[in-house]
Design a protein that fits this description.
It is a single chain. The protein is an alpha+beta fold. It is about 50% helix and about 20% strand. It has 15 helices and 16 strands. A seven-stranded mixed β-sheet has the order 15-13-14-12-11-9-16. The chain has a five-stranded antiparallel β-sheet with strand order 2-1-7-6-5, sandwiched between helices. A two-stranded antiparallel ribbon has the order 3-4. Helix 7 (about 190-220) runs parallel beside helix 13 (about 345-355), helix 8 crosses helix 10 (about 270-285) and helix 10 packs antiparallel against helix 13 (about 345-355). The longest helix is centred in the middle third of the chain and has 37 residues, at about 145-185. The chain starts with a helix and ends with a strand. About 30% of the residues are buried.
Length: about 425
C-alpha cells in the first residue's frame, strides 16, 4: 500500500509540474507575440499624419523609403518616370542619397540624366532629385522632371543665336557696301551698282525686323480679343495682290478657286499675314512659267465645321527629313535659294502660331520635284464664335511658344485645291 501511495503521489506532483510549465510557456508565448519585432518595424511603417495628403497634391514625383529601403509610398508620377519598380527604388544614385541622408539627417539635392523608358532612342530625362529625412525612420525623395524646361531653354538660346546671326549678315553687308561706295566715289557705275546692293540688304533687314515683330505679336497677343468674321475670298484676294509683282516677274499663273462665300472668325490682320506667307513661299519656290493655286472648302469635323484653305505650287518640293523642321524659326529647306529670294525663315513659324492661336492647324504634303500643298484648317465662323463666347479657345502650348514642330502634321496625300479656278494674271 505504501508503494502504491508513493507512486500516486509522484504522478500527481508530475502532473502539477507539467501544468505549471505549460501555463508559463503559454504566457511567455503571448508576451513574445505582442512584443514588436525588427521585422514588423520594417514591414509596417506608418506615415506621419497629413503627409499622405500633402504628397498626393505635389507636382513632383514623391517616394517615401523605410529603414530597409523599401518603398512605403510612391506617387503615380514616380512609377511613370520608372523610379519605382517591384517595390524598390530603381535609381541607384537616388538610393545612395537616401541611405546617406538616413545616416546623417542631411538634406541632399542633385541633378541627374536618366534613360527614358520605352522610347528605344537613347533619349535622357533630366531630373532634379531632393532627399530629406521624414520623421525618425523614413526618408522622403522628391524628383522634378526638368526635361521640358531644358528643351525650351535650349530652343530660346538657339533663337537668340539665330537672330543675332541673321541681323549681323545684312548689317555687315551694308557696312562693307558703304565703304565700297566711298572708295568708288569717282566711278558712277560702281556707285550705282553698290547702291543697288545696299537697297537689297536694307530691304532684307527691314523684312527680318518686321517678321520678328509679327512673330512676337502673334505669340503674345490674344487674336480673338478683336475677332470678327473674315471672308475667305477677301483673304485670298489680298494674298494674291501681295505677290502679284513677284509672280508676274517669273510668269507664274495664280489661280483662285473652291467654295465661295466662306467665312472664319478671327483676327483679320493675322489671318491675312498667314495666308500671304503661304502664297509668297509658293511663288518664291516655284520655277518660272508654273502655276500656284489657292482654294478653300468647308469640311465636316467632330468638333464643328472647318474651313480648309490650300495653297499648291509646282516648285522644288520638300524632302521627308525637311518636313519635320520647316515650321521651326529660321529653318530653310534651301538656304542659298532663301537668301536669293530674301527669305528670313520665319514665315512658316508665323503661319503655325496664327493657326494654333485660332484653334486650327497647318499641314503640308510635298514630293520632291512635284511641288507642295500647304493647308490651313480653321474653325468655320459660327463654330469659332461660339467657342470664343464660351471662353474655350485654347492658347499656345509650350511647343508653339518655342517654335517647334509639335502640333503640325504631315498628310500622306495631296489636297486637290482647284475647283473651277479663276485664273488671275
Amino acid at each position: 500500500m505504501d508503494v502504491n501511495a508513493a507512486v500516486a503521489a509522484a504522478a500527481a506532483i508530475a502532473g502539477v509540474l507539467t501544468g505549471v510549465i505549460a501555463m508559463l510557456a503559454f504566457r511567455w508565448s503571448e508576451r513574445e507575440q505582442k512584443r514588436p519585432t525588427r521585422t514588423s518595424l520594417h514591414t509596417d511603417p506608418v506615415l506621419p499624419p497629413g503627409v499622405d495628403t500633402v504628397l498626393s497634391v505635389l507636382r513632383s514625383s514623391a517616394v517615401v523609403l523605410d529603414e530597409a529601403d523599401a518603398v512605403v509610398k510612391a506617387s503615380s508620377a514616380a512609377y511613370a518616370l520608372g523610379l519605382v519598380r517591384g517595390g524598390k527604388l530603381a535609381v541607384e544614385p537616388m538610393l545612395q542619397m537616401a541611405r546617406d541622408t538616413r545616416r546623417d539627417g542631411e538634406i541632399r539635392q542633385v541633378e541627374l540624366d536618366l534613360p527614358r523608358r520605352g522610347t528605344g532612342r537613347g533619349e535622357a530625362l533630366a531630373v532634379s532629385a531632393r532627399v530629406a529625412p521624414l520623421g525618425s525612420r523614413l526618408v522622403l525623395l522628391l524628383v522634378e522632371d526638368l526635361t521640358e524646361a531644358r528643351r525650351i531653354e535650349a530652343v530660346r538660346r538657339d533663337f537668340v543665336a539665330n537672330v543675332s546671326h541673321e541681323l549681323k549678315t545684312p548689317v555687315g553687308a551694308l557696312s562693307l557696301l558703304s565703304e565700297a561706295v566711298m572708295g568708288a566715289s569717282e566711278e558712277p557705275e560702281a556707285v550705282e551698282r553698290f547702291a543697288g546692293r545696299m537697297q537689297i540688304e536694307a530691304t532684307r533687314l527691314t523684312n527680318l525686323v518686321q517678321e520678328l515683330i509679327d512673330l512676337s505679336r502673334v505669340q503674345n497677343d490674344d487674336p480673338l480679343e478683336d475677332a470678327e468674321p473674315v471672308r475667305i475670298d477677301e483673304l485670298v484676294a489680298e494674298a494674291i495682290d501681295r505677290c502679284r509683282h513677284q509672280a508676274g516677274a517669273k510668269q507664274i499663273t495664280m489661280a483662285a478657286g473652291g467654295t465661295a462665300d466662306l467665312s472664319i472668325w478671327g483676327n483679320r490682320g493675322q489671318l491675312a499675314a498667314a495666308l500671304g506667307n503661304l502664297v509668297e513661299n509658293a511663288v518664291n519656290y516655284s520655277p518660272a512659267r508654273t502655276r500656284v493655286g489657292i482654294a478653300a472648302r468647308q469640311v465636316t469635323a467632330p468638333g464643328g465645321d472647318l474651313i480648309e484653305i490650300a495653297v499648291t505650287d509646282q516648285g522644288i518640293g520638300i524632302s521627308d527629313k525637311d518636313k519635320e523642321r520647316i515650321f521651326e524659326r529660321f529653318y530653310r529647306v534651301d538656304p542659298a535659294r532663301s537668301r536669293a529670294t530674301g527669305g528670313t525663315g520665319l514665315g512658316l513659324a508665323i503661319v503655325k502660331h496664327v493657326a494654333a492661336s485660332h484653334s486650327g492647324e497647318v499641314t503640308v504634303w510635298s514630293s520632291e520635284g512635284q511641288g507642295s500643298t500647304f493647308t490651313l484648317r480653321l474653325p468655320e465662323a459660327g463654330a469659332a464664335r461660339d467657342r470664343a463666347t464660351d471662353d474655350q479657345t485654347p492658347g499656345l502650348d509650350e511647343d508653339d511658344e518655342t517654335g517647334q514642330t509639335d502640333g503640325t502634321t504631315t498628310v500622306s496625300s495631296p489636297y486637290e485645291p482647284f475647283s473651277a479656278p479663276e485664273v488671275l494674271p
